Amino acid sequence: MTAGIFGLETRPPISLDDLDSAAALQTRMDRKYVVEARTAASVLQGFGADVRVLDMLGRRSFTYDSVYFDTPALDSYLLAAHGRRRRYKIRTRTYVDSGVGFLEVKTEGARAATVKERIPYDPADSHRLTAEGLAYISETLACSIGSVPSGTLRPVIATRYRRITLYLPASGSRATIDLGVTWRKPGGPSYELDGALIIETKSGSAASALDRHLWSSGIRPSRISKFATGMAALDPTLPANRWHRTVSASLPLRTLD
Length: 257
What we know:
Layout: E1 13-14, H1 16-23, E2 27-36, H2 37-45, E3 52-54, E4 62-70, H3 75-81, E5 87-95, E6 100-108, E7 114-120, H4 131-144, E8 154-168, E9 173-184, E10 190-193, E11 196-203, H5 209-216, H6 228-234, H7 244-249, E12 253-255
Parallel strand pairs: 1-3
Antiparallel strand pairs: 2-7, 2-11, 3-8, 4-5, 4-8, 5-6, 6-7, 8-9, 9-10, 9-11, 10-12
C-alpha cells in the first residue's frame, strides 16, 4: 500500500527542511486512530483540505525502526498502563532509508501534552545505550519529570513500519500514516498489524482539519501506543488498563515468523 492508494501522490510536496521549519511540534497533542486499511483509503481520498506530503528524492513513504528501553521492573510501561501524569518513553529511532538515527526521550505531563527531545545516535547502537546516551537520558528526565529510572535500562520491544507524513498548512500541524506496523520482543517472532493502519495527528490544543474529517466519518481516537499497546498485546500477563479495548477489539495481529 503506497501514498497513491490514499490519493496523496497528486498532493503538493514539502521538503523535510520546510516541514521541520513549519511544524516541528516537539511539544504537541497527539491523537491516534487505528483504521481498517480500505476505510482509511476511502476517507483520506475524500479529505478536501490543503495537504502537503513529505517528499524526499521522489519518495513519499519511509521505513522507521524504533527500539524501546525499560527497566527490569518495566517502570516506563507501568507508568503508562496506570495513567500516571508524569511518564516517559525512551527509544532509539532509525530512519532506515537515510541511515540516520536518534536517541529520543518523550515525556508527558500536564494536559497530556507530549514533549520529545532527542540527540543524534549511531544506528549501530540502536539496541543498546551508550554512556553518552545514558547521561543524556538522566539529564533530560531529571529536568522534565524530576526523576530518573532506578533500574538498568534494556531493550524490551522493537517496532518497524512505513510512514507517510502530511503537513496541513491551515493549522500548521502534521499527521502521519503508519503502514505495515510490526512489533518484536527480543528473541521473539514479529507480529504485524493485520489489515489496518495507524493515523496520528500532531497539533496544538485545537483539533486539526484531519481530526474533524475523521470524526465526521465515524472514526474516533484510539488508546494506542506503539510501545505500551505492543507490549500488552505481545504479553497478556501485563496489566493493560488503558489499552484493554484496543488490544481486545481493534488490534488484529498476525505472526510473520
